Amino acid sequence: MKLYLVEDEKNLQQLLVTYLIEDGYTVTAFDDGRDALNCLNDEPDLWILDIMLPEVDGFTLIKKIKEKNSLTPVIFMSARSAELDRVIGLEMGCDDYLPKPFLPRELVLRVNRLLQYKRTTQNPKIGSYIFDVNRRILLKENISIDLTVKEYDLIKLFLSNIDQALSRSDILDDVWGDNYFGSERVVDDTLRRLRKKAPELPLEAIYGFGYILKGVI
Ligand code: CA
Q: What is the pLDDT of residue 216?
C-alpha cells in the first residue's frame, strides 16, 4: 500500500521512511506542504502529516485531503502544544495523532491498524469469508482461496444482488456476455466448482431456476 509522508525535519523523515519501507509499504516523502498539495490527486492509501510545515501547513493539507476523499486516513504528528493540536486535528477529521517525540515503531503500528480497518471496510464479508476485491481472492482466517476470472465476476454479480434470486440466463448474460452461445450448464458447473472451493458461501441453488446469495453481513 502507498503512503505519503510530509515532514520537513530531514532526519526524522528518513528514519520514518526506513521503518515504513521495512514493514512493506511504498512511501513517498515530501519536505514541504506545497509539493504534497500538488500530489493530492494521486490518492495514496494513507497520509502522514507534520503540522508545522514550510509553505503549506498540515491543517491546510488535511482540509484538502478530506475534501477530496473523506475516507482517506490521515495521521498527524506534531511537536507543538500537543493537546491543542490533537483537538484541532480531530476536529478536522484526522484519524490518529502522534505527539513528538515518538518511537518510529509506534507510527508503523498505527499505520497498520488504520489500513487494516480500511481493508475490512472496503472488502465485504460473505458468510465466513472476506472478499478481497483488489487481490481477487476469498479469505478465510488468513487462508486465501484463489478465484478464476468467472468465479470473481460471479461473486461480484451476487454481491450487487444480495437476497435476490438470479436466473441461470440472467447470470449467463451478465457474466459470460451476450456473445456466449454455450449452454446454461456452464453456470451450474462454474458455481459447483466455486461452492466446492468455498463450501461455506451462503450461495444456494433454486431448483429449476437459478441461484441466490443470502444474508451478507
Ligand atoms: Ca515541522
A: 55
What's the gap in Å between 108 CA and the centre of ligand 1?
19
Query: Ligand 1 centroid vs 158 CA: distance in angstroms?
Result: 49
**pLDDT tens digits for range 33-80:** 999 999 999 989 999 999 999 999 999 999 999 998 888 999 999 987
Provide the pLDDT for residue 83.
79
> In the structure grid, which three cell numbers stand for residue 198, read together?
468455498
- Name residue 203's beta-bridge partners: 213
Question: Which residue's C-alpha cell is 487462508?
Answer: 143
Instruction: Please choose, from the candidates 11, 24, 61, 211, the residue with its C-alpha nearest in 3D space to the C-alpha of residue 75.
Output: 61
Ligand 1 centroid to residue 3 C-alpha, Å = 18
Give me ligand 1 centre to Cα 20, in Å: 19
- Domains of the chain (ranges plus CATH)? 2-120 (3.40.50.2300), 125-213 (1.10.10.10)
- Distance (angstroms) between ligand 1 centre and the Cα of 129 equals 43
